[in-house]
């Protein structure tokens, strides 16, 4: 697997999801830092103010206040955040076709049903990490060809 740099930002209103994600990451060969934020509005502020490198955003879709779709829409409206091209995926227990279609209409890079076991979640994360660690991203400040 390619080297993973940066943190995973987990945005989910259920605090136990952080523990599950960390356990799933520990079950694969590569562990990276996880930053957990329960409120999407706080996550937006964090993304705008903090200059830490974010490898991947994993968000739930059904959250009170601002839901995951609204969170993604706000990222896309912000030029700085949009140009960072941070991969954004949904992990949700809602696997209805209507919800999945709506998510992809918001330019997400993936929609995954939350796995039943930590091992299955680890395998899913391994696939996602391998893909995004190998994928080229635009880097701000580099001269155009």
Automatic annotation (TrEMBL):
Q: Which UniProt keywords apply?
A: Phosphoprotein
Q: Where is the PTM 4-aspartylphosphate found along the chain?
A: 60
Q: Where is the Response regulatory domain?
A: 7-129
Q: Which PROSITE patterns match?
A: RESPONSE_REGULATORY
Show which residues constitute the signal peptide.
Answer: none
Highest taxon above the source species:
Bacteria
Q: Does the keyword Cell membrane apply?
A: no
* PANTHER family hit by this protein: RESPONSE REGULATORY DOMAIN-CONTAINING PROTEIN, STRESS RESPONSE REGULATOR PROTEIN 1
The protein depicted here goes by the name Response regulator
